[in-house]
């Protein structure tokens, strides 16, 4: 993994994106050179470079929006062909909309067909080469876990579950005296040699420390220092989870990690950039989605004659209470007893129109007004109701850390995890929220915005 503006990105996915961008640019340029030559053999450039760049960027955006650069996207030629068709279809629709505004970027019907065909072929071939290369043992990261307790078991599960471009080979776990063993006996490595000798013998590139009691006299401080000085990378379990799962795991979290681990940018520059991003993103989405919002309002009114909008108190930055605005998706008096209730799968309180609005996240669109008012950001932890916040803050450590920044219309937890409807779900989502609060940047906001398109198009995680 590599860090770009504090966010961890898969090296192979990054290389794949750059290669495909180059291939798409080359496809558009070569096809245009062959097509747009005059009778004397002279090439007519016109708006070739702008058109080619627009084509490449729109296709890359479409593939990103449909999850083709996510960690779990390793695939064969059949799956690649199936996934690439909707991506290019979305790209064609976006290009058509852009051409209506900027006709000068239009290649022409004939050349556009050739460019799309060449571009799709180039992407398929590039992916086959990259995916085949990713299977090489030379690119496989070999890990040794120091410790064999419950945290080591979780780290092993994470390493074995990764089916994306970055693969791990877990050499095994080094047991520490006095720690309960929770891993299979076959995963335990024989003790007797130093950690540095063991790492070199097994060709391990990295040691992950999963021992929770680091004050024990059995904790191998000198061995770990020797590994760090000997060129073997040493990290702790919290860093491993943050890097590989984009989570700050509560079960491996020490207060010192939050204090000394960097991040948590609350500078004036970051706040100004984020506010500008909020206004631009919300303004564009409001303009584009205005016809959809008008249809949604009419459908809600026609469905049961009740009010179109619904306001609900939520907890914002620094614990301040504000009213979030949404399209009403539940029947009137859905909480008649007066006790807040978690939403459930196939919730009977949701109306027919409301179920459709929730599936496509249309019910969230009025929150653009909250963004304009400065009560919310476009990207951030989802605001929760005060009743649930009081309960969750009592039961979950560090829960109120998420209130150190403005809540968002969308967020990392929303694009990575299912709809939250229980305390356990709140714990899982908090781990993503903590990652965002610690590593938030304009780059991460843009990635979450792209992932939100995928969530909306595929209706993921709605209730």
Automatic annotation (TrEMBL):
GO terms for cellular component: membrane. The chain crosses the membrane at residues 12-36, 48-69, 81-101, 107-130, 279-300. Signal peptide: none annotated. Pfam families: Bac_transf. InterPro entries: Bact_transf, EPS_sugar_tfrase, Sugar_tfrase_EpsB_2. NCBIfam families: EPS_sugtrans, EpsB_2. This is Sugar transferase.
